[in-house]
């Protein structure tokens, strides 16, 4: 099923393949215009499936030859499939040889084999291998691979593929070859090759078991000095996986290669990870603290896939969260363990939950809502989602919560003992964790727990407390429900671990009150005895389940939690709830001026000045809930009203705390020699926020001192974090100095692609304080450094405007929506995956107030009316228009 067809693929229709492929021998003669691919396979019939024709997937291939056991054979094509019917009837293995050609330089979809800046790359997940050769392109067909690459030696001196290099040498005509053998069976989506002019940072390490390994990070010449952090992250990942889960590196060498043309963040091809440069290249002059943290996380994620995804893979693509949810959980745990002490761990947890709430919760409530394990799809690329990844991670985290950290590790060991080398399901994983912990709550409730995999939507937990002063008894009642989602009207109760504790009004925690309550019925009661006075409940500590918590906290209760809770997540959450209450009340009132009262401002001042709290934590508490998150709390959304109220809150926070922001900046802006560690990064983050607030206040007061200081900071900064924070402060406040600073920034970094992405994104995501954003975005599209063909550059400008700047995008004149529809169609002709991601920007159009709602629907319908849309985009817009 390809473009033009809309076949629905259903999980219930899964059937094992009629044939297995045991071994694959691939020979590539690499040429940008015409690459020749010789594919020799050893196949055998699956004895458990009735005899039938062999149907191989292929796309945009030129077929030259088909041989069975060395002899010519009859074949036919049906759509994109190659069909062979006259095959040996016995179950013995037979040889199939297929010779095809393809044109990598014309492959703008960046799926399959393509050329980027003169270098060959592959991307085969999910269904890209069929664009290289005819094959059973499905994850449950696992084979051993031998790969020979041949190419011009001068143009392509480095030839890489999965596994171990066993042979290399020169050929006639200035060509050379390299032969690679992967010792592990793998599905074809994990195949990779890279060929080009590359240089490598190398590191030899010795594992705990004494085995030696060669680690290599390949980049284009000139970028080698930006690979140290990626290499350090890889070594830390290997050490962590051995220590935490006893999982060693199983290859003689492990390679990372960076490319600037990539649809995703990175890809875990066995032993040959291909990365977006964004998640490899870093120096203090060009990368921010956030970049450094993201590189550590993504390098860890892809390395951890070596076991959770590669050694044990997915039976079918519906099980995608089996590898992705589990591996996101592993990379989050890795980053938290590396962060060290409790406060830095909490900062990482808060950052992860913010992503879940601002991206996954809206997805759960929108037209693309789907379970962690979807039941159907038209285009699998559309299901690489925050639900599969981030919510999937939370489902794994709950399994750890219900079994303990040690119990979960035992479950992981059993999972690999049972399934190493297999293609399995989410059920197999959960069963292994439960079986390793037979006395756990997970084992007791496993069939019900697995509803997290099958039911879409975000559960809501309503809590209410009753205090009996005479009996000194506090009763907490918890109730769960889940709203309907497309195709799922009724929801059965989930298994929801709720970590909680009780505080007295003076902030002291009530001894013995901390516990994890497992909510598995529609309602349950928890009784606390010996409670001397009415307590303040601290609920859903550490965000112990991916739910919406409904509890009618008073301001006094929230201020108590903010000041005293022993759980840092709930301290932050209390601050967010205080801000959200004021935002929603102001939006409802119709007013805009002075949305923040003295009690809130005093609380924020106390946090900012607190002598014990970490700077990183302070920055999170003092950052207001996003416009997207505020909008999700409303039944009907006027985006301009939300924007105006949040901007008024920011302005008031800036003005009322001017002296405190100045103190914070002076105390935190000097972090010494650059280090991207948690403490230094936190200090820079708080100093950056302070600078932004001081520039905002200066706009209101006419002050010229702080904008001047900010501009000087921009010019003198010794690292990209400080430089970019200063630039952003000027741009977001709309100060006149911003124009000169932007020009100076471009001149400094015009040859650094990743830094230019930041430059484009900052302008597209700017507040309207600096003027009308859309004309600026349109003008930037004409900039000589802009191109739609590079996904990073397209995302930096177009996505930053359409998806990350609601105040500028949702215009009463609908011009933002018209721009969106034009870009979706333009991108769809080049790269359907990127276009489909952009199409998601209007998922929540039905919540919009008029005139936005009608105009957004018209824009979506305009895209849907295009007859030759890709399946990627058609699925998104069709679902957006459904069920009106």
Automatic annotation (TrEMBL):
<feature type="domain" description="Peptidase M1 alanyl aminopeptidase C-terminal">
    <location>
        <begin position="555"/>
        <end position="882"/>
    </location>
</feature>
<dbReference type="InterPro" id="IPR038438">
    <property type="entry name" value="PepN_Ig-like_sf"/>
</dbReference>
<keyword id="KW-0479">Metal-binding</keyword>
<dbReference type="InterPro" id="IPR042097">
    <property type="entry name" value="Aminopeptidase_N-like_N_sf"/>
</dbReference>
<keyword id="KW-0378">Hydrolase</keyword>
<dbReference type="Pfam" id="PF11940">
    <property type="entry name" value="DUF3458"/>
</dbReference>
<dbReference type="InterPro" id="IPR012779">
    <property type="entry name" value="Peptidase_M1_pepN"/>
</dbReference>
<dbReference type="InterPro" id="IPR037144">
    <property type="entry name" value="Peptidase_M1_pepN_C_sf"/>
</dbReference>
<feature type="domain" description="Aminopeptidase N-like N-terminal">
    <location>
        <begin position="26"/>
        <end position="190"/>
    </location>
</feature>
<keyword id="KW-0482">Metalloprotease</keyword>
<dbReference type="GO" id="GO:0008237">
    <property type="term" value="F:metallopeptidase activity"/>
</dbReference>
<feature type="domain" description="Peptidase M1 membrane alanine aminopeptidase">
    <location>
        <begin position="230"/>
        <end position="440"/>
    </location>
</feature>
<comment type="function">
    <text>Aminopeptidase N is involved in the degradation of intracellular peptides generated by protein breakdown during normal growth as well as in response to nutrient starvation.</text>
</comment>
<protein>
    <recommendedName>
        <fullName>Aminopeptidase N</fullName>
        <ecNumber>3.4.11.2</ecNumber>
    </recommendedName>
</protein>
<dbReference type="Pfam" id="PF01433">
    <property type="entry name" value="Peptidase_M1"/>
</dbReference>
<dbReference type="Pfam" id="PF17900">
    <property type="entry name" value="Peptidase_M1_N"/>
</dbReference>
<dbReference type="InterPro" id="IPR014782">
    <property type="entry name" value="Peptidase_M1_dom"/>
</dbReference>
<dbReference type="InterPro" id="IPR027268">
    <property type="entry name" value="Peptidase_M4/M1_CTD_sf"/>
</dbReference>
<dbReference type="InterPro" id="IPR035414">
    <property type="entry name" value="Peptidase_M1_pepN_Ig-like"/>
</dbReference>
<comment type="similarity">
    <text>Belongs to the peptidase M1 family.</text>
</comment>
<dbReference type="GO" id="GO:0006508">
    <property type="term" value="P:proteolysis"/>
</dbReference>
<dbReference type="InterPro" id="IPR045357">
    <property type="entry name" value="Aminopeptidase_N-like_N"/>
</dbReference>
<dbReference type="Pfam" id="PF17432">
    <property type="entry name" value="DUF3458_C"/>
</dbReference>
<feature type="domain" description="Peptidase M1 alanyl aminopeptidase Ig-like fold">
    <location>
        <begin position="457"/>
        <end position="552"/>
    </location>
</feature>
<dbReference type="GO" id="GO:0016285">
    <property type="term" value="F:alanyl aminopeptidase activity"/>
</dbReference>
<keyword id="KW-0645">Protease</keyword>
<dbReference type="GO" id="GO:0008270">
    <property type="term" value="F:zinc ion binding"/>
</dbReference>
<keyword id="KW-0031">Aminopeptidase</keyword>
<keyword id="KW-0862">Zinc</keyword>
<dbReference type="InterPro" id="IPR001930">
    <property type="entry name" value="Peptidase_M1"/>
</dbReference>
<dbReference type="InterPro" id="IPR024601">
    <property type="entry name" value="Peptidase_M1_pepN_C"/>
</dbReference>
């Amino acid at each position: 099923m390809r473009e033009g067809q809309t076949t629905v693929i259903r999980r219930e229709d899964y059937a094992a393949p009629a044939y297995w492929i045991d071994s694959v021998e691939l020979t590539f003669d690499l040429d940008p215009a015409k690459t020749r691919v010789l594919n020799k396979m050893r196949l055998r019939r699956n004895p458990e499936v009735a005899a039938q024709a062999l149907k191989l997937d292929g796309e945009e291939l030129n077929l030259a030859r088909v041989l069975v056991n060395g002899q010519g054979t009859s074949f036919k094509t049906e759509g994109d499939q190659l069909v062979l019917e006259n095959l040996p009837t016995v179950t013995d293995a037979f040889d199939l040889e297929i010779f095809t050609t393809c044109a990598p330089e014309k492959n703008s979809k960046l799926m399959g084999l393509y050329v980027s800046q003169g270098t060959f790359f592959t991307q085969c997940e999910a269904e890209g291998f069929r664009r290289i050769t005819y094959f059973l392109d499905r994850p449950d067909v696992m084979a051993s691979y031998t790969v020979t690459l041949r190419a011009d030696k001068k143009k392509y001196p480095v030839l890489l593929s999965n596994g171990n290099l066993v042979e290399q040498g020169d050929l006639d005509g200035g060509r050379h070859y390299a032969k690679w053998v992967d010792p592990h069976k793998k599905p074809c989506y994990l195949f990779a090759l890279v060929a080009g002019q590359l240089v490598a940072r190398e590191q030899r390490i010795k594992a705990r078991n004494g085995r030696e390994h060669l680690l290599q990070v390949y980049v284009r010449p000139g970028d080698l000095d930006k690979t140290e952090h990626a290499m350090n992250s890889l070594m830390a990942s290997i050490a962590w996986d051995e220590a935490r889960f006893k999982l060693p590196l199983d290859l003689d060498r492990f390679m990372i290669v960076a490319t600037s043309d990539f649809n995703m963040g990175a890809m875990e091809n066995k032993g040959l990870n291909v990365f977006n440069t964004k998640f490899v290249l870093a120096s203090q002059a060009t990368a921010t603290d956030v970049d450094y943290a993201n590189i550590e996380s993504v390098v860890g994620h892809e390395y951890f896939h070596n076991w959770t995804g590669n050694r044990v893979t997915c039976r079918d693509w519906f099980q995608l969260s089996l590898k992705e949810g589990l591996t996101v959980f592993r990379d989050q745990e890795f980053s938290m363990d590396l962060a060290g002490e409790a406060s830095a761990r909490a900062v990482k947890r808060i950052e992860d939950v913010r992503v879940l709430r601002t991206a996954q919760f809206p997805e759960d409530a929108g037209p693309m809502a789907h379970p962690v394990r979807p039941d159907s799809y038209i285009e699998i690329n559309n299901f690489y989602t925050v639900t599969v990844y981030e919510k999937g991670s939370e489902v794994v985290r709950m399994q750890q919560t219900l079994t303990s950290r040690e119990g979960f590790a035992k479950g992981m060991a059993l999972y690999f003992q049972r399934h190493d080398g297999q293609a399995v399901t989410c059920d197999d994983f959960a069963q292994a964790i439960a079986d390793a912990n037979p006395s756990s709550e997970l084992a007791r409730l496993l069939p019900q727990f697995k509803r997290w995999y099958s039911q879409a939507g975000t559960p809501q937990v309503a809590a209410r407390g009753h205090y009996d002063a005479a009996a000194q008894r506090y009763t907490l009642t918890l109730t769960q429900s889940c709203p309907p989602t497309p195709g799922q009207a009724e929801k059965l109760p989930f298994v929801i671990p709720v970590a909680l504790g009780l505080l007295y009004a003076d902030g002291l925690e009530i001894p013995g009150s901390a516990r994890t309550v497992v909510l598995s019925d529609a309602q349950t009661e928890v009784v606390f005895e010996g409670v001397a006075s009415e307590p303040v409940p601290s609920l859903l500590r550490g965000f112990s389940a991916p739910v919406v918590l409904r509890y009618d906290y008073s301001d006094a209760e929230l201020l108590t939690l903010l000041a005293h809770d022993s759980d840092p997540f709930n301290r932050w959450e209390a601050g967010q709830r205080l801000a959200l209450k004021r935002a929603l009340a102001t939006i409802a009132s119709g007013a805009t001026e002075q949305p923040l009262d003295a009690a809130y401002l005093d609380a924020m001042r106390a946090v900012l000045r607190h002598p014990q709290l970490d700077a990183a934590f302070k920055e999170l508490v003092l950052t207001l809930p996003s416009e997207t998150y505020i909008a999700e709390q409303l039944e009907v959304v006027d985006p301009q009203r939300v924007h105006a109220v949040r901007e008024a809150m920011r302005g008031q926070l800036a003005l009322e705390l001017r002296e405190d922001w100045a103190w914070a900046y002076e105390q935190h802006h000097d972090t010494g020699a650059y280090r991207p560690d948690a403490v230094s990064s936190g200090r820079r983050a708080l100093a950056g926020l302070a600078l932004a607030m001081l520039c905002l206040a200066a706009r209101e007061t006419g002050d010229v001192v702080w904008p001047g200081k900010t501009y000087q900071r921009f010019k003198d900064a010794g690292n990209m974090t400080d430089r970019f924070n200063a630039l952003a402060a000027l741009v977001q406040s709309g100060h006149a100095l911003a124009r000169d600073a932007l020009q100076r920034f471009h001149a400094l970094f015009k040859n650094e692609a990743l830094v230019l992405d930041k430059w484009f994104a900052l302008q597209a995501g700017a507040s309207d304080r600096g003027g009308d954003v859309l004309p600026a975005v349109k003008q930037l599209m004409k900039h000589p450094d802009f191109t739609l063909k590079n996904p990073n550059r397209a995302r930096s400008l177009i996505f930053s405007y359409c998806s990350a700047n609601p105040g500028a995008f949702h215009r009463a004149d609908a011009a933002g929506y018209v721009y969106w529809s034009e870009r979706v169609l333009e991108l769809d002709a080049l790269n359907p995956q990127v276009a489909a991601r952009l199409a998601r920007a209007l998922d929540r159009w039905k919540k919009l107030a008029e005139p936005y709602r009608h105009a957004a629907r018209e824009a979506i319908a305009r895209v849907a009316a295009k007859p030759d849309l890709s399946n990627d985009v058609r699925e998104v817009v069709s679902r957006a228009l459904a069920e009106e």
